[in-house]
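tool_call: predict_structure(chain=1)
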Amino acid sequence: MAAETSTPVRFGIIGCANIARKVSRAILLSPKYSTIVAIGSRSVDKAAAFAKNNGFPASAKAYGSYDAVLEDPEVDAVYIPLPTSLHLQWAVLAARKKKHVLLEKPVALNVGQLDEILAACESSGVQYMDATMWMHHPRTPHMKDYISDAHRFGQLKAVHSIFSYNCGGAEFLKNDIRVKPDLDALGALGDAGWYCIRAILWASDYQLPKTVTALRDVEFNEAGVILSCGASLRFEDGKLATFYCSFLSNLTMEISVLGENGFLRVHDFVIPFQENVGQFYANSNTKFGDLSIGVEPAPAECIVKTDLPQEALMVKEFSSLVRKIKEFGSESEKKWAIISRKTQVVVDAVKASIDKDFQPIDVVY
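tool_result:
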């Protein structure tokens, strides 16, 4: 790892999306690792206001274009929270300008676009990572340790995940970019389903399913954008996974993982209910109690504390990888590109099943 005296990675942010407020805060929470030197929007006034309202350093520059951020020689890396339809253009251009790329999810409209982004990053030797924040919470490896334990958990049999919310109401469903076909055509599948699919792959050690079948009764808006959907995933070894994602249901962020000997459930995997604490529940070798009154042993609550929120830990890990490249000539870490691509492949398969009257789709990596 780079020495603590190393220069922080200097971020430029392309776009003033609401999620950029959260990630810009995260960048500034680890000043030894990262700082913000530039923000670009379609107007300089909007960029300047964003910088002021979100506590950017006084030295941070506000630009009235995205290109200006990429041309700034002081920018080492860019965070891109633009609508998905713009990711291909700006992530590829950022990579060609030798800027490391932290890309908001969903990362692309399809795997063909993602392959172009990854090829540009590989050609320029820059680090790529998608901004799936829960992957970086210290709770996540604790959960992985449990479901990898042959005695306590055993062979994985099934996974189910839900991510839904209806926080925006009628205004969201009418005007948010996530329901606009020219901006985020994947709708709830791309925005919320991405998390569910990532959770299934994570639990499965990133083994891809053999087939994916979308569930019927998908809900669309008038423009044909998905507002809710679900799918079942069949694996070669017989395990089964399902998920449901929606813009029309109460806020829910669940992963349930079933093994031969154990069961894990987490109620807030996308965004922890408390910023500095992550909880999950685990059962092992559970039996009904006497007269089938209750179960034995009772589920154990596991509590994992963290000094930094998961998005700051994400930025810290990304910055550490960038510093290794900058200061030691290391190659970029490829695992994040592989995980992104596998997630996108399954997203594509769900969309293809919906488009083909809910037929099973073979998953090809």
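agent: The domain at 135-308+344-362 is CATH 3.30.360.10 (Dihydrodipicolinate Reductase; domain 2). Proceeding to next step.
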